[in-house]
Amino acid sequence: MRWKRSAYPAILCYVLFAAPAWGQWISTTSPSGGSVNSFAILGDKLFAGTQEIGVLVSTDRGLNWVSASALLSQTHITALATCGVDLYAGTFYAQIYRSTDSGTTWALLNTGAYDEVRAFAAVGDTIFAATGLSGVLRSTNGGDTWTRASTGITSEYVNDFCMLGTVLYAAGDGIYRSTNGGNTWQPFDAGLTDSGAFSLATVGSNLFVATQTGIFVSKGGASWHRATSLLPPYQVSANTLLPIGGDLIVGSFYGIFVTSDDGETWNAKNEEMSDSTSICRLMTDNTNLFAGTYYGAEQGIWRRPLSEMIGPAAVSQPSTAKHELRTYPNPFSLSTNISVTLEKSGYADLTVVNLLGVEVTKIFSGELTAGEHTFIWNPVGLPDGMYECLIRTNGRIEKLPLMLAR
Q: Do residues 55 and 45 make contact, with C-beta atoms less than 8 angstroms apart?
C-alpha cells in the first residue's frame, strides 16, 4: 500500500506525559499565512515557508517576521533549505525557486518535478529534493539543472531526508539509504512495521522515523523497533522530529514533546499553548526553539528559549573539565584539530552539527582508550559559518563551537 503525506497526516504513537515545568512560549508577530510548513537559517536571518503568503524572514531572532516573497509566483511554500550562500524554496505546485540575495529576489528553476516538493537536503555542494510524484531530484550545480536520483526507491513518494555520517537516508513508502551520494538506494526497513514514513532525525548514532503508527528507532544501524512500545495509551500524531544534542523534540497535533532517553519517556512542553495546538515544523538557532503551526486559533510561529525545553546542560557552554574537548585553530579556514581527552576507556561518538542541529560530519565512532586523541576536521563543501563539535562518551555529552571562516 502506498501512503502519500497530506496536510493532515494521521500518525499514532503513545507517550508518557510528565508534569511539565513552567516555561514561556511566545507567539511572535508573524502575519497570518496559514500553516507554517518549513524553516531555514542563512547567516543571521531566519526564514519560514507558509501555506498562503510565501516566505517570511526575521532579522531579530524570530520576534518579528516580514515578507520575503518578491518575484514568487506561487506562495504555498512546502520546503526551505540553504546550500552554500543560496536559499531554496519548494512549493506545493512542483516548483523550486532559488534566491542568491538572502530572500530579496527569487528565480524559478527548471526541475522537471510534477508534484509537491516536500523536503530538501544539502550535502556539500549537492542539493536533493524530495517530491510527491517525482521521487528524488538532485542538482550538483546550484540548482541550474536537476536529474532524477531514485534508483532503488520503489515509490515515487519521498517525504524527508537526513544524514547519518556519510549515509543519506530518505523516508517515503519505507526507509531507504544511499552510500554513494544518491546514485543508488537500498531499503532499510528491517523491523519497521509501517511503510508510511514522514520525518527522519538522528540522535548520536541512532536514527528515528515518524510513521503512520508511531515513532521507530534504529540504534547504531540495527533493526527498527518502536520507541513508544512500553508507554501507556496517550494518543499523539507526530509531524516533525528535531534532534538537539542527546534529546529528540517531537512536534505533533497535540503540541510538543521531548525525550532524552530514546523514547522511553516523554515530557510535554506546551505551556502557553492549548493542548490542541497542531505543530507542523520545528527549528532551532541554538538559542531558541521555533514552532510553526497548522491552521487554527493559535496559528503562526511560536518561540521559546531552548534551555527551557531540554535543560541548561544541553545548551550550555562546554564542560570546564581539563582538556575534555578542545579545537585549534578556531576560527579556522581549511582544517582544525579536535583534541579529546578521556579519563577512562569507552565508546565515543564525535560529530559536527550545523546551527539546525543536523549532523554534517561523523568524525569518529568507536572505542577509545583513556588519554588524549586528536582528529583533523576538513570541512570540504560546507559553507562558512558556525558549527558545533559534540563528543558523546561515558554517559556525557560535551560540545564546543567551531567557526569556519575562509
A: no
